[in-house]
């Protein structure tokens, strides 16, 4: 929209002394002529913009022009900036970036350095190591569908490897332990479901639109334990023994208070988990440094899996 572009240009100019017209044209995917027409409209609205030629020239605001910022203190603005920066780490969002530009624009020049230090006191980064362009494409498709209240279809593979075709009304994207999920109303099941985004493929936005229902935030599945929201199996109590050499890893997973040291210097823990393929993989991820003590059938299952792994490598 033209109004959004005009406001965005003003915000950018507040944060930079000079910007080239071509840079603005590339940013907003319009022609340089359109940018100059926008500048004329902004000037007519009473916001003083100047242009200059030559090296170091470009488009800029007159010196000292700033927006009113009486509503929030620098500390409050810094808190907002920190939150926005944290949210932007796992999911790039132009609206978030523009809001951060707006906040920077209302900080007086004399306080800029101090404000930057305040926003860099701690950083919360929710993103995983490396970049996954396929995940970002999926998130953009889902976000577009949510904004337009449009149905989407996709092929989904659940935790047991079963593949189904789904048609859903997307409601909310959730980031939980560095994994993205979609909370949506499944038209096939006529109920709300959680879908892991990385297990979705062939996403297509449909022309069909829907009216959003009111959903009780306190009862949503991502506010419950993962055992409740992601598994249909009943929970059982496990007793695991961790070797003392990976005490630090066990502490990261379960907390120092949950570990009980035995006479040999190793550590035991009692935990409740549902029995499924995730549990087997979780236990095996610790390799030789963990042993299942109870229940016996889980111990036998892990032993059988380990023996099959040995056979694979013996053949190799």
From TrEMBL:
The keyword Transcription applies. GO terms for molecular function: DNA-binding transcription factor activity. Residues 2-57 form the HTH deoR-type domain. Keywords: Transcription, Transcription regulation. Pfam families: HTH_11, WCX, WYL. This is YafY family transcriptional regulator. It comes from Paenibacillus albiflavus.
């Amino acid at each position: 929209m033209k109004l959004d572009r005009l406001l965005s240009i003003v915000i950018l100019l507040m944060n930079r002394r000079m910007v080239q017209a071509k840079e603005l044209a590339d940013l907003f995917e319009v022609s340089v002529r359109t940018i100059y027409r926008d500048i004329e409209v902004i000037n007519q609205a009473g916001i003083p913009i100047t242009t200059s030629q030559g090296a170091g020239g470009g488009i800029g605001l007159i010196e000292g022009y700033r927006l009113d910022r009486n509503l929030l203190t620098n500390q409050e603005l810094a808190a907002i900036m920190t939150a926005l920066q944290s949210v932007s780490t796992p999911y790039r969002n132009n609206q978030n970036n523009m809001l951060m530009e707006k906040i920077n624009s209302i900080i007086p020049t004399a306080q800029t350095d101090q404000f930057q230090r305040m926003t860099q006191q701690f950083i919360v980064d929710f993103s995983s190591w490396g970049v996954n362009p396929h995940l970002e494409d999926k998130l953009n498709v889902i976000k577009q569908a949510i904004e337009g209240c449009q149905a989407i279809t996709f092929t989904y593979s659940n935790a047991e490897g079963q593949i189904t075709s789904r048609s859903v009304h997307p409601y909310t994207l959730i980031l939980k332990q560095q994994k993205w999920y979609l909370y949506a109303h499944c038209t096939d099941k006529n109920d709300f479901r959680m879908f892991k985004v990385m297990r979705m493929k062939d996403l297509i936005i449909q022309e069909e639109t829907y009216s959003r229902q009111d959903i009780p935030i306190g009862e949503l599945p991502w506010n419950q334990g993962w055992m409740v929201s992601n598994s249909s199996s009943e929970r059982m109590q496990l007793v695991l023994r961790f070797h003392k050499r990976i005490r630090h890893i066990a502490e990261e997973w379960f907390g120092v208070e949950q570990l009980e040291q035995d006479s040999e210097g190793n550590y035991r823990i009692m935990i409740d988990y549902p029995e499924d393929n995730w549990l087997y993989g979780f236990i095996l991820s610790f390799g030789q440094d963990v042993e299942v003590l109870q229940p016996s059938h889980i111990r036998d299952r892990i032993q059988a899996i380990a023996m099959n792994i040995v056979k694979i490598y013996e053949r190799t």
